[in-house]
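Hello again, I could really use a second opinion on something today. I owe you a coffee for this, so here goes:
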Amino acid sequence: MVHRQEKQSKFDEILEGNLGRLAAVARAYAGTDSDDLLQEILLQIWRSLGSFEGRSSIGTWCYRVALSTSMTWRRSLSRRKQNLPSESSELSEVPGDVDGHDSMELLDRFLNTLSKGDRALVLLYLDDLSGSEMAEVMGMSEGAVRVRVHRIKRKLAQWQVGDE
């Protein structure tokens, strides 16, 4: 078991090197609730820190925890929304239209059209991870990663043409 002071030191190191990446994952999966999801991700990293075995880099491990937590959080959110009365669904609608000029808004809209796995892959790609690093995080072969990235790029090109 890791001593509390060692655990805190390792956690601080993780925050220093990965907070931006973790926040990006939270934004991609939670949108306006990203702060809540980021807190959940950080909590899961803290809880799981003792199980980090060093078989991968700490950054790769953090991605795995963040993606797993985000997917679980999203499923849980979907179940909670299903249990709300129908009038409450209006609360989740954002007033106004996306103006189409903000690249972050466009990226968020595109990410929402993707499956959870593809969304995770885009985040890894945008974070400049190598094919082997993306494969390690996603638990798939490099070839499979290349194929999925290619398909996502093709979908983005079609989406941009159809979106205008």
In short: The two ends are 55 Å apart (CA to CA).
